[in-house]
Design a protein that fits this description.
Hydrolysis of 6-phosphogluconolactone to 6-phosphogluconate. This protein is of the alpha/beta class and about 260 residues long. About 30% of the residues lie in helices and about 20% in strands. A 7-stranded mixed sheet has the order 3-2-5-8-9-1-10, with helices on one face. Strands 4-7-6 form a 3-stranded antiparallel sheet.
Length: about 260
C-alpha cells in the first residue's frame, strides 16, 4: 500500500450530473480494462447515487448500452444486507431492477452475495466464489478492475461501520459484520480487498455528507470513527466523484471542476 495518497476529486452541480459523470467514468475504465486484459471485473455498492448511475447505463437513449463491453464484464458486490434477493432492501434487487434486467449481461456473469443465508455462511460462500473465480491461493486478494463505494453520513463505506469488528479483519476477503447501531448484520468485502482494486472511487452526494467528507479526507486519522479512512488504494490514487453539496467543505476546485488533496500516512 502506498505511503502517500493522492485524492483526486471532481464536483458536479447536482446528483443527476454526478450520476452521468459516474456512468462515463465506468465506461472509460471498463473499456480500458477490456483492452488491457480482455475482461473487466467490477465490484459495486448500493445506494441512491449508484442506482441513478445504473439507470443511466441501462437507458437506451444514452450511449452506454451500445458501448459498454457487457459480454466481457463480471459483476461483483462490495456488500449486501442480510435479506433475500427479492427483498426491497437488497442491493442485488436494486441492481437487477435498475441495470441487469435491461442490459445484455448473462446471469453467470453476476456474482451475488447470498444475503438470505446465515451471515457467516454467506461470507464464507462469497469468499469461496472469489477464490475460485480469481484462482487465488493462500493470502492472495482478488484484483478488481473497478470498485465503487459510497459514504454514509456516519463515515462508513461498504458495510464497514464505525466501531464494528470488520474494521480489524485483515485475514479474510469477506466478513460477516454485526452492526449494533443498526441491530443487523451485513456481508462486506474487507478493506484490504477494496484497497487492492486497480481503480477505487467514491460516489458522494448530499449536504448531509459535507462535514463528514471534510473529516474523512482532510482531518486527522481516526478509522474507528471514520471507516472510510481505511480506503487507501495500493495504487496511491483515490478518486472522489461528488456533487456540489457534498463537496461544500473541501478546498475549491479549479475552473475545470477538478481538485486534489495529498495525504501522508
Amino acid at each position: 500500500m502506498s505511503s502517500n495518497l493522492r485524492i483526486n476529486y471532481t464536483i458536479d452541480p447536482d446528483p443527476a450530473a454526478l450520476a452521468l459523470r459516474a456512468a462515463h467514468h465506468m465506461l472509460e475504465l471498463a473499456e480500458e480494462a477490456v483492452e488491457a486484459r480482455g475482461r473487466c471485473r467490477i465490484a459495486i455498492s448500493g445506494g441512491s447515487t449508484p442506482k441513478a448511475t445504473f439507470r443511466i447505463l441501462a437507458d437506451p437513449a444514452q450511449p452506454f448500452v451500445s458501448r459498454m463491453p457487457w459480454s466481457q464484464i463480471e459483476l461483483f458486490f462490495v456488500d449486501e444486507r442480510t435479506v433475500p434477493p427479492d427483498h426491497p432492501d437488497s442491493n442485488y434487487r436494486m441492481t437487477k431492477e435498475a441495470l441487469l434486467d435491461h442490459v445484455p449481461i448473462r446471469p453467470e456473469q453476476v456474482h451475488r452475495m447470498q444475503g438470505e443465508l446465515e451471515p457467516e455462511v454467506a461470507a464464507a460462500e462469497y469468499e469461496f466464489d472469489l477464490r475460485r473465480t480469481f484462482r487465488l491461493e493462500g493470502a492472495e486478494s482478488p484484483r478488481f478492475d473497478i470498485l465503487t463505494l459510497g459514504m454514509g453520513p456516519d463515515g462508513h463505506c461498504a458495510s464497514l461501520f464505525p466501531h464494528t469488528e470488520a474494521l480489524h479483519e485483515i485475514g479474510r476477503l469477506v466478513a460477516a459484520n454485526h452492526v449494533p447501531q443498526m441491530n443487523t448484520w451485513r456481508i462486506t468485502l474487507t478493506w484490504p480487498v477494496i484497497n487492492h482494486a486497480r481503480e477505487v472511487f467514491f460516489l458522494i452526494a448530499g449536504a448531509d455528507k459535507a462535514d463528514r467528507a471534510k473529516q474523512v479526507f482532510t482531518g486527522p486519522k481516526d478509522v474507528e470513527t471514520l471507516p472510510s479512512q481505511l480506503i487507501w488504494p495500493a495504487s496511491g490514487i483515490l478518486t472522489l466523484l461528488m456533487d456540489k453539496a457534498a463537496a461544500a467543505e473541501l478546498p475549491p476546485t479549479g475552473a475545470d471542476g477538478k481538485g486534489h488533496l495529498e495525504r501522508a500516512r
